[in-house]
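INTERNAL AUDIT FORM
Audit reference: QA-55
Scope: verify that the stored structure record matches its stored sequence.
Auditor: D.O.
Record contents follow.
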Amino acid sequence: MTKPTRSHVDLYLPAGPKLPALIAPRSGIVGQLVDDVDSPTSARVHVYYEGNLYGSESFRSYADRCYHAADRMIAAYPTVAQAMVSPDDVVLIGTLDMTFGEVSIEPEHLDALEAWLDSTEDGDRWRFTTGQTHEGRRTVRAWPREKRELLKQLPPRERDVYERAGLL
């Protein structure tokens, strides 16, 4: 069993009718492959999910929901929003970068994700960064040009962090 790290977490979608009966539509679903101790030849996927059933403002975007589910998974937080499922019940669609709060979806899974998120999702449907990261980027982009130019003068390693985050 590989313990998920704070850097990247796998993202999943339901692969059949079984999980949508358990998990609310538009939920962010994260998970990790685990060995089945009773049967070493088979594996299971331990999924955590967040559907924002109570309308919290901090879980509005898909990325936010994925991030909160991943945070619970990494902490092994006790919650009812988790399940052990067969690998046949889920499809690995991408990853969540926990450092930058960014979702990366494999192109062949974008249509399935759009169907899962549904057209009733608000305008943040395709915002693939968490709210905190999104606000931070907006703040830096609003900085005066002089301040951004100063960031470009940072040592390469530090500058790379800002570039990867799309801030420069």
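Auditor finding: record pair retrieved intact. Helices lie at 62-75, 110-117, 131-141, 145-152, 156-164.
Action required: none
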